[in-house]
Structures are given as structure tokens and as C-alpha cells.
Amino acid sequence: MNVALSVVLLITGIILLFFGGEGLVKGASRLAKLLGISPVVIGLTVVAFGTSAPEFVVSLIAALKGSSDVVLGNIIGSNISNIGLILGIAALISPIIIQGRLIKVEVPIMIALSFVFYGLAWTLDLEVLQGAILFSVLIVFTVYSYFGAKEEPKLIEEEYEEYLSSDGPLWKHILFIVFGLAGLIIGAQLVVDSAISIARVLGVSELVISITVVAIGTSLPELSTSIVAALKKEHDIIVGNIIGSNIFNIGILGLVSIIHPVSVDKALLNLEFPIMLFFSIIILPMMMTGKKVTRPEGVLLLLLYGVFIYLTVS
User: Fold this and answer.
1) What does the DSSP assignment read for the chain?
2) Cα angle at 303 between 277 and 7, to 5 degrees?
3) Which one of 163, 192, 221, 290 is at 20 to 30 Å from 208 when CA atoms are compared?
4) How confident is the model at residue 229, as a pLDDT?
5) What is the pLDDT of residues 236-266, one digit of tens each?
């Protein structure tokens, strides 16, 4: 397979992942509302897990194919791009005001989970035990978020408004789910196969392709949500979306590891993992100073992300 065809298939796969994820989330959340499930539960389970579906399906297919570099590159790269690229762009559009709860709870949880992830990676094999630890933290976080969100149900409804409209017949929501799943599976297959093909033809590692192009591709739902929210100045949605996505990405890696072991290249422990930790930590002082992420800080995040890409591909 030549590079041009592989690139076309990669782009096609990313598009299918984006629309497949959107279709699955909209269909499942609207079906859940039709069945009488509360918006808080839908927002924190169906929507939250569903928006991480692209990362999960890509990582699972890559793991089953024995491409551990694609799995870890996708997760680590997505977490770095969520902060460096997506939060940076959102802050450029509109300075982001930060709520105290994010500084005290959600961001520290993300940082702590990132360190746990790094620590478990030193075993060089993420298997059932390590996967269970990571996934259990995600479950605990979801339960905690549920009880916290029950105090602000109106905010949850507003945040997930586009997903919670249950208009239309039952068959329409089921069709969304079916086509969404099909898009995710086919798209993930195309992304993994084409990424591996491009890496082999260009003589670069699968990790480089995965941590840059694939990671950004699977983060498109977060990017589109954050840009729209920044234009509307819905700051809580931006930060909650990014921090929640990073926590979910590590948690779903745990689920993938339970299903199929993931091998860790020792080189990742020296560069990519520390950079992921750096990006996770750096936003805390940014948020604590004036309780906002300013435009200059957005520029700094984008510059740091550019440095990360340079270090990865050089």
C-alpha cells in the first residue's frame, strides 16, 4: 500500500471515527432518555463513555493486532493534545474561567491517575491487574461525579443538551447506535491499518504516527466541543470536557488491558510519559493564578505542544 492511499484511508478512518462516535452517543443518550433514565446519569455515563469511544475502539483493535505502540501512542498523545493543543486553542478564543471544584478535585485526580498510569507502566506489561486498577479508578470517579452532579442537574442538562433531545421514533435512535458502532469499528480498523502502513513505508515508528496524527484524530470530538464552547464562553464545559477525557482515556486503557495485554516500550518511560505528566501538572498553577487560563497561557500551551511534536518526530 503506497503512502498516498494510506493517508486517504487514515483520513477516511478519522472521519468515520468522529461521526461514528457522535452517532453512537446521540443515539444511546436519546434512547436512554426515552426509557426514562435521568439526564445526570446519561451525561456522566452514556455521553462520557461514548465520547471516549474512538480512543477505546482504536486502542482495542491495535491491542488485538499486537500493536502496543499504537495503543499507548494514541492514549498518551490524546492526553497531551487535549491540554496542549485543545485547551490552548480554546484559551486563545476566550480566556477560560476556572471553577474552584476543578482545581481542588478533578485536576488533582487527573494528575494522580497519570502518575498511577506511569508507575504501572514500569512493569512493562499492562495486563489484567494493572488494567483493573486503572479501570476501577475510572468507575470510582464516575460514581463521585454522579453524586456531585446531582446537586446541579440543570447544568448537566445544559451541558449535554444536544445529546438529550429525545425527539423522533425509537427506530431512529437505534439506527444512530447501529451506524455509530459501524462507523467506529470500520474507522478504527482503517486508522490502525493505515497508521501501521504509513509508519512502515516512511521508515518511522508506529509510535510517532500514533502519538501525533492518530491521537489528534481520536481527539476531534473534544476539539470540536471545546471550540464551540469557547465561542459560547461556556468555560465549565471546556475544562470539564478536557479533564474528564484525560481521566477516561487512562481508564479505558485499563479496560483494553483487561481484554488484551499491552506491552510498554521502555523508551516511552523516558520521554513521552514524563511529557504527559508535565502537561497534566502545568495546568494546575495556570488555573490557580487568577482562576483562569488566559490567552498568553493558551499561546504557551500551544508552543509547548509544538516542542513536544518536534521532540517526537526528530
Assistant:
1) --HHHHHHHHHHHHHHHHHHHHHHHHHHHHHHHHTT--HHHIIIIIIHHHHTHHHHHHHHHHHHTT-HHHHHHHHHHHHHHIIIIIIHHHHHHSPEE--HHIIIIIHHHHHHHHHHHHHHHTTSEE-HHHHHHHHHHHHHHHHHHHHHHTT-HHHHHHHTHHHH---S-HHHHHHHHHHHHHHHHHHHHHHHHHHHHHHHHHT--HHHHIIIIIHHHHTHHHHHHHHHHHHTT-HHHHHHHHHHHHHHHHHHHHHHHHHS-EE--GGGGTTHHHHHHHHHHHHHHHHHSTTEE-HHHHHHHHHHHHHHHHHHH-
2) 90
3) 221
4) 80
5) 778 877 888 899 999 999 999 999 999 999 9
Comparing 115-119, 156-160, 208-212, which segment has the lowest mean pLDDT?
A: 156-160
Per-residue pLDDT tens over the stretch 48-72? 677 788 888 999 999 999 999 999 9
Q: Could you give the CA distance from residue 92 to residue 89 in angstroms, rounded to a whole number? A: 5
Q: List, in order of start, the domains of the chain with CATH numbers.
A: 3-313 (1.20.1420.30)
C-alpha–C-alpha distance, residues 311 and 214, integer Å: 17
User: Distance of CA 43 to CAs 38, 193, 239, 247, 253, Å?
Assistant: 9, 32, 15, 15, 21
Residues 6 or more apart from 155 whose CB is under 8 A from it? 149, 236
CB 248 within 8 A of CB 78: no
